[in-house]
Amino acid sequence: MNIKNELESLPFEKSNMQFCNVDVDPEKILAIMINEVVPADPKQDFYGADDAAYLETAIPLFQKAGIHVNSISDILNLGVYITNAVKAPKAGYTISREQIEESLPFLEKELSLFPNIKVVMLMGDVAKKAFNMISKKTTGKNAVPGVSTYKLRNSEIYHEGIRIMPSYIMTGQNILIEKSKFEMAAEDISVMVKMIQQ
């Protein structure tokens, strides 16, 4: 299944939207990592060029977690699919609620494509907000409590039987600067991979 083709078939405004152009076997995906926002250049996204900027931080996170990966194919082969909550590049420094809402139908559809998901990792506050908007539509309440990620990291949060793991943003300059968040995100990835391999 090609994810981009699936999402482009939705009857919503798509100008400026970027979707993961990747073929996956949806049955084999057991975990989804939701990053914050697509990059300005699609070649820098997870399924873009082999030396994409987003992979320059994602791959070292897995390696720091003790998982031997060197490419996005290796990550997919683990049963882990990575996507972005916001499908249009950010225009300013921050991402507005409206931007998250515009991408929500696509993220919702994307999550529904994978029938065997055990874990959803929310990489940063934008991913957390987007997932809460989805859970509020289906259950009437937020899946993830509105407290800092640091306080939630060791909580067992479930949404419709799927373990939800709030963690830290995995792309961009922030992760290169904040070593403690890099360490914690790597620890979270290690826990997630152990869960899907059980």
From TrEMBL:
It comes from the Bacteria. Residues 74-146 form the Uracil-DNA glycosylase-like domain. Gene3D superfamilies: Uracil-DNA glycosylase-like domain (3.40.470.10). InterPro entries: Uracil-DNA_glycosylase-like (IPR005122), Uracil-DNA_glycosylase-like_sf (IPR036895). This is Uracil-DNA glycosylase. It comes from Desulfotruncus arcticus DSM 17038.
